[in-house]
């Protein structure tokens, strides 16, 4: 099918975009890479009155160094992320997870910001942003605000970005030398979407795990932190046994869905296995 | 209606389109580039792959208005003088059966080879993961892409894996019969 008719605006600045959204009527959709929105519009699951295309807002694209953080523009495409030297140096987990997203064609169009605002439970970048304690910079008619990752993912396909607002950039704290990272994903061969995936970020100190952060993909309507695992790992000896014992707790308190790809209990099993693998690799074991 | 100006396979077009027009429909129905096909309704199959400003995209998941001011290359535009090396390799290595996926496979493969001129079998499979083929089982597609890669690197036959398809008859017995 083709999308239902809509009117189309193509602003070149954030201010123009906010104005186009404000003037767009009842049901306005922002178009980033279109790799989630256009399929949904083709299936007529969305039929917005106005589409505001961010494709020509150049200021939203690219990655910059900002002292103790890197700042990723919302319109930076997945393939730009994959070749970005700042991301490779300071947040390689993002590149690792982005490399597993979809396929070359989709990665050429799809954007970092779009994937985060879309907040698909099976999407790979939300759990990564959560594990990295990223911050989301949102602008709207009321000005600019910054939302921590822990408050950004509100519910199924729902984030802190309100109607009339835009995600403009994401700040990712630089995690230097002593941090290791790994994204472990389980998916069907012909479909890139995660059945379950785990993002692990680990800091080692003197043979111990000083700090671990573990993000879970597709273990509930929003990405989750595996807090029990993180607590069990804090201060633990950096051994395979200690990691395996902590990883057993990865599914505690989760309520994953059952669908054509997997039953909930299978997802819970996967979460423990993938957490063990991800933390083991991130800890350099 | 929104006016757009696009270069398609080297020629400039200025047209009025509805904003909801998908690039693939614009290419097929307004420009007449029917070499690009539609195989699904879910952005999965890759049959519609074209290059937009030099990068492979699924033209069923791009609006024609988003291509305004851009350069589009379709399967009809890849061979400047005769067949493109990737087209030639698909032909020689028997990288197709019904041929429906082939335009998209070739466009995705050319894009892959721009980034990685010497991909391994696994890298080819990953590079074309956004393209589905219901016929070939992919074996000869992978062979074709690697053969084209060798040809484009200028290595000719020297690389072992670019020999004719008869070498691997165990995996594709019909090739031996037809060769
Ligand atoms: C075949 C296929 C396979 C895929 N596989 C995967 C996968 O394995 N893993 C994965 O993570 N993803 C996958 N995706 C999704 C892909 O990552 C998309 O790029 C992403 O989900 C959406 O990004 P986009 O830029 O295309 O956003 P769009 O589709 O343009 O927008 C998505 C939503 O976010 C809103 N939005 C976008 N940007 C902003 C902004 N700056 N401010 C406010 N709202 C905004 C839009 O209004 C819309 O509601 C796949 C997609 C396809 C088509
Ligand atoms: S027709 Fe475009 S991906 Fe299937
Ligand atoms: S040759 Fe028939 S779909 Fe690929």
Automatic annotation (TrEMBL), chain A:
Name of the protein in question: Xanthine dehydrogenase family protein subunit M
UniProt keyword annotations, A-Z: FAD, Flavoprotein, Oxidoreductase
InterPro entries in the record: CO_DH_flav_C, CO_DH_flav_C_dom_sf, Diverse_Substr_Oxidored, FAD-bd_PCMH, FAD-bd_PCMH-like_sf, FAD-bd_PCMH_sub1, FAD-bd_PCMH_sub2, Mopterin_DH_FAD-bd
Top-rank taxon, per record: Bacteria
TM spans (from-to): none
Biological source species: Blastococcus saxobsidens
A single MF term (Gene Ontology): FAD binding
Cited SMART domains: CO_deh_flav_C
Keyword Flavoprotein: yes
Gene3D superfamilies with a match to the protein in the record: 3.30.465.10, CO dehydrogenase flavoprotein, C-terminal domain, Uridine Diphospho-n-acetylenolpyruvylglucosamine Reductase, domain 2
Domain FAD-binding PCMH-type: 1-177
TrEMBL record, chain B:
Positions in coiled-coil regions: none
Domain 2Fe-2S ferredoxin-type: 2-78
Keyword Nucleus part of the UniProt annotation: no
Record flagged with keyword Iron: yes
GO MF annotation terms: 2 iron, 2 sulfur cluster binding; metal ion binding; oxidoreductase activity
Pathway note: Alkaloid degradation; nicotine degradation
Gene3D superfamilies: 3.10.20.30, [2Fe-2S]-binding domain
Classification via InterPro entries: 2Fe-2S-bd, 2Fe-2S-bd_dom_sf, 2Fe-2S_ferredoxin-like_sf, 2Fe-2S_ferredoxin-type, Beta-grasp_dom_sf, Diverse_Oxidoreductases
Pfam hit, one: Fer2
Keywords annotated in UniProt: 2Fe-2S, Iron, Iron-sulfur, Metal-binding, Oxidoreductase
Protein name in the entry: (2Fe-2S)-binding protein
